[in-house]
Design goal:
disordered C terminus; alpha+beta; 24 strands
Length: 1042
């Protein structure tokens, strides 16, 4: 039965490579086969664009004008769809030109695109859904879809718009729930902050109210104190006024008594002046007489000093004579002592000849020791030089080894740039290798070492990136453990391969043709010989990529590539990679030449042989250094022994030299002391001569002293007379001064009393003035505190009660005020700004509490609604995915593999936007189920999974047709056959959708079914036109030929 909406006929004109073409597909499987470039995928493009699809969906261009045939102005596509009734057809036409202008027709009538789109949607045709339309250039996009995109496209593909709408509604409700939850949390946080802020100052606010009450009481106290002080000031002012009158009378009394006393003092001072003049004249005469007497006394004193000096000189000279005699005796004794010491030294050390002989003997010994030390020192220097050379050689080796080891770090940095997940996995593995039973190798790009960096591009071209970053396990259980740790727990997208330790072993992988037989074509080595790596990795590369059978050549290979033996299917020249294949039908040879593009992942090579050589040489050099250290230690001991002997010899020489110097010193001191003795003995002055000379000098001095004493006596008599006269005048002066002093004291007493009276008067005046001012100020202050009223005014009544209740004693009032102030000081009060903020926060707290209550109520409603919507959406979704999984698993089981399709909920079950469709596959028994992605599986494996998934949707999807373009590219023969048989079995059912399967090639001996239609596309310049084509004639010709 033909499904409504299936394609009955496709017609194109001036479309891509077609000038004109028609296609009549069957209701079941339609296979379009033909060589590449003939226009198979163009038919798919015509279906997509003819049914309203966007050029981007095709994947070959972005503008519709790009699908107009070259040198044509306009193209036309017509799709004839099966209607709801047998014999009913719907014609959809699309004309477009090079200016991107499109015209739509529906049943040969011009219409808008909306009408066409409405007609298409009636049949659930979805040209932008990769689960229904999978063009050639979008096959890779299917595997690149994440879980969320895959779930969305699956729901669209099975035409479950109700599920899509429910999921979108759930996502909106969840977003509303998250937004509302964030708002409620923010309100709660803000509420807590406001409450905490008010709690912190609540005590301050209470204290502030108490403070206001205390301050009002203090105002009452200050008012009462002000009026009491005013009354006290008025009373004080009256008292001061009486004192002022009395002070004026006393001042006038003392002012009149001072004048007679001042006149008597003036007369007495004149008498004192005359007496003082006479005393001055007498004093001048006394000073003159004193000067004369003093001069004579000084002369007499000098004469006495002369006598003392003469006697002192005599005693001094006598002491010099005594000292000279002592010096002569001491010098004589000293000379004798030096001579005795010299004799003792000569007895011990001998004379000059004996000392000279000893010195020569010691010098000879010293010379021999020095020669021995120099020889040993020179030998030590030679060894030191040799050791330094070895140390330099050691540093060079260590530096070179460090440089070689730094290459590993560079390779690791390269891995981080290429694949961060693999880099993090390497760091984890290095810390956790103890978890594994067998060997687990880091990514191959870290383990493989290219012997010659220039050959790295060949190896990089052979090994795909997914294997370069793949970890290699020898044991299967280690591989499974590593997958669980890295992919499942750490969520790292890494590739892991299994090498195994079972046969075949590495030695069994030998080239099909010895390299010697290929050298004439410029091929000089196989890829296997260009690298070194751990044996499990080499085994995997040989088994998987056959590196032992891929030869590498130079520029000569570019001339002989056509002559390479057919056993070599892949080989390299200096710049190109050649791949040879043979048709399974005609065995015709096909050669593909691609320029080599290196990614640099293996260009950094490690010279392992050089590293081992350096490590061996390092051991030898370190042994040499230890040998040199032992020889140096022996030489140092010998040199130390000779140095000690040399030091002892030098000590003997220094002792002899010291003896010689000591004798020379003794001879020098004897000469000096002998000269000193001769000089002392030359002075012959006697004591008697000195005594006679002194007596003569004393007689002359005594005669002069007698004459000077007579002159001093006459001067003293005149001096005594003048002193008596001066004493009389001083007595009269003292009497006159006493009289003046008496009068001045009396006058001073009167002036003092007058001053005291005047000072008291001024003080009382100032007190009166101050009291008057204080009274005015007190009155002003009291009125200011009482609203400009006095206690007698009616305006004072508002203060009357508090005023009368307070005591009339200022001290008691002040004590009460101090008590209240101490209470205020003990209060921790808020200021007015804090009080205002407190009240504002109280209002905000009340509002927030209402908002939070409303929000929580709304959240409860949303949660209930969300749970209901989740059940309505997820339960039917689980049923649909379960059906898909059932068919997908069965399809993989038929192929000898395993597959699973399930709903992935993500980390948060309520995050409905993260719900996705998880496709897991396993192609080998040793592997666990792994997510389908572009990293783990190869292109062929992804194509198999894509085909199986789309076929699993077949019976669940009410779409009229499906289209898959070249999905079998990259599959091996077994997988291609399995997919084809699966496709045939799925599409031959009577209720199946129409299916278009496009491929450029097929493996031989495939299963055939009568429901299949095979369309051979063989477009080209020598093919007959549509009008010239006669299928009946061709059939008859074929029968006749048979």
């Amino acid at each position: 039965m033909v499904k409504p909406g299936s394609i009955y006929k496709i017609t194109v004109r001036n479309f891509v490579t077609y000038t004109y073409a028609e296609m009549l597909p069957g209701p079941n499987l339609n296979m379009l086969i033909g060589p590449n470039g003939t226009g198979k995928s163009t038919i798919v493009a015509a279906i997509i664009l003819g049914l309203g699809g966007n050029p981007k969906t095709v994947g070959r261009g972005t503008k519709i004008s790009e699908y107009v045939k070259h040198n044509c102005d306009e193209a036309y596509i017509e799709i004839q769809l099966q209607g709801h009734q047998n014999g009913e057809f719907i014609f959809i036409g699309r004309s477009f030109d090079t200016r991107d202008k499109t015209t739509w027709k529906l049943n040969n009538k011009k219409v808008s695109f909306k009408e066409v789109e409405s007609t298409i949607q009636q049949f659930n045709i979805q040209v932008d859904n990769l689960c229904q339309f999978l063009p050639q250039d979008r096959v890779q996009d299917f595997a690149k879809m994440n879980k969320q995109q895959l779930l969305q496209q699956t729901q669209i593909a099975i035409c479950r718009n109700d599920l899509i709408e429910k999921q979108l509604n759930l996502i909106k409700v969840r977003e509303r729930h998250k937004d509302l939850q964030v708002s409620v949390d923010k309100y709660g946080q803000k509420l807590q902050e406001l409450q905490d802020a008010n709690i912190r100052i609540e005590g301050k606010v209470r204290s502030l109210n108490k403070k206001k009450k205390y301050l009002r009481t203090i105002e009452d106290v200050n008012r009462k104190v002000a009026w009491l002080k005013y009354e006290d000031t008025r009373n004080t002012m009256d008292t001061i006024k009486t004192d002022k009158t009395q002070a004026i009378a006393v001042f006038n009394k003392y002012k009149d008594a001072a004048k007679p006393i001042e006149n008597a003092i003036s007369n007495a001072r004149k008498t004192i002046g005359n007496i003082e003049q006479r005393i001055t004249n007498k004093n001048r005469e006394v000073r003159l007489n004193e000067g004369f007497v003093q001069n004579k006394l000084d002369k007499y004193k000098n004469m006495k000093s002369s006598i003392t000096r003469v006697l002192g000189d005599l005693n001094s000279k006598l002491r010099e004579i005594e000292q000279r005699n002592q010096d002569i005796a001491q010098t004589t004794e000293k000379i004798n002592e030096l001579k005795r010491k010299k004799s003792q030294i000569l007895e011990v050390h001998g004379d000059d000849a004996q000392r000279k002989e000893k010195i020569e003997k010691f010098n000879q010994n010293l010379k021999t020791l020095t020669s021995n030390i120099n020889k040993l020192t020179e030998k030590r220097g030679d060894i030191d030089n040799a050791k330094r050379n070895k140390a330099y050689e050691l540093r060079c080796f260590e530096s070179e080894l460090q440089d070689l080891e730094n290459v590993r770090q560079q390779r690791l940095e390269g891995l981080r740039r290429i694949d961060k997940d693999a880099y993090e996995a390497v760091l984890w593995l290095r810390d956790n290798k103890h978890l594994f039973k067998g060997e687990v190798f880091e990514p191959m790009m870290l383990e493989i070492n290219v012997l010659n960096p220039q050959h790295a591009m060949f190896v990089e071209s052979v090994i795909p990136t997914r294997d370069k970053v793949a970890f290699t396990c020898v044991l299967k259980e280690d591989m499974n453990l590593l997958i669980r740790m890295l992919r499942d727990q750490k969520k790292l997208r890494v590739n892991i391969v299994h090498s195994g330790n079972e046969p075949p072993h590495l030695q069994s992988f030998q080239p099909a043709i010895p390299i010697e037989q290929l050298r004439k074509y410029g091929l000089f080595a196989y890829t296997r010989s260009l690298i070194t790596a751990p044996e499990p990795i080499l085994k995997y590369l040989c088994k998987t990529h056959r590196i032992h059978n891929i030869p590498v050549g130079d520029h000569t290979t570019n001339k002989h590539y056509e002559n390479i033996p057919q056993q070599v299917t892949v080989f390299f020249s200096d710049k190109y990679r050649f791949t040879t294949s043979y048709s399974k039908y005609t065995r015709q040879k096909s050669l593909r030449q691609v320029e080599i593009k290196a990614d640099g992942s293996l260009s950094i090579s490690i010279n392992t042989e050089r590293m081992e050589n350096i490590r061996s040489q390092l051991i030898d050099v370190k042994n040499d250094c230890r040998k040199y250290d032992e020889e140096l230690h022996t030489l140092r001991m010998q040199i130390t022994n000779f140095n000690e002997k040399q030091q002892a010899t030098r000590e003997h020489l220094r002792e002899i030299q010291k003896c010689k110097q000591e004798i020379e010193g003794i001879n020098s001191r004897i000469r000096v002391d002998t000269g000193k003795l001769e000089q002392l003995q030359r002075n012959t002055t006697t004591r008697e001569e000195l005594q006679h000379e002194c007596d003569e000098q004393l007689r002359g001095i005594v005669d002069k002293m007698v004459l000077c004493q007579s002159e001093i006596k006459d001067a003293y008599m005149q001096y005594s007379k003048i002193l008596d006269e001066a004493e009389l005048d001083r007595t009269n002066l003292s009497t006159a001064r006493k009289q003046v002093t008496f009068l001045e004291n009396k006058s001073q007493d009167v002036r003092r009393l007058r001053g005291e009276a005047e000072e008291r008067l001024n003080r009382i005046k100032q007190l009166y003035t101050n009291a008057t001012n204080q009274a005015k100020e007190a009155l002003s202050k009291a009125k200011q505190l009482s609203n400009n009223c006095t206690p007698e005014d009616d305006g004072f009544n508002e203060f009357r009660a508090a005023y009368d209740n307070l005591p009339d004693n200022i001290e008691e009032l002040q004590a009460e005020k101090d008590h209240i102030l101490s209470k205020i000081d003990c209060l921790n009060t808020a200021d007015m700004g804090e009080l205002q903020e407190y009240e504002e926060r109280q209002d905000q707290i009340a509002k927030l509490q209402v908002d939070i209550q409303k929000g929580n109520k709304e959240l409860d409603g949303i949660n209930s609604n969300m749970d209901r919507l989740q059940n309505e959406w997820f339960e039917p979704l689980q049923e649909v995915v379960g059906e898909i999984n059932k068919r997908f698993s069965a399809a993989f089981k038929r192929m000898g593999c395993a597959g699973e399709v399930s709903v992935s909920k993500g980390e948060n079950e309520k995050d409905f936007s993260e719900y996705g469709l998880s496709i897991k596959v396993k192609y080998r028994d040793a592997e666990p189920l792994q997510e389908l992605n572009t990293v783990v599986q190869s292109g062929g494996e992804r194509a198999v999974a894509t085909a199986a998934f789309m076929l699993s949707l077949q019976e669940l999807t009410p779409v009229p047709f499906r289209c898959v373009d070249e999905i079998n590219q990259g599959m091996d023969a077994n997988n291609e056959r399995r997919i084809f048989e699966l496709l045939v079995d799925s599409t031959r059912q009577s209720d199946t959708s129409q299916y278009f399967f496009i491929t450029p090639k097929l493996v031989p001996n495939l299963k055939f079914d009568q429901t299949m239609n095979i369309h051979i596309v063989h477009n080209g310049p020598f093919i007959p036109t549509q009008e010239q084509w006669n299928r009946i004639k061709l059939t008859n010709r074929t029968v006749a030929a048979s």
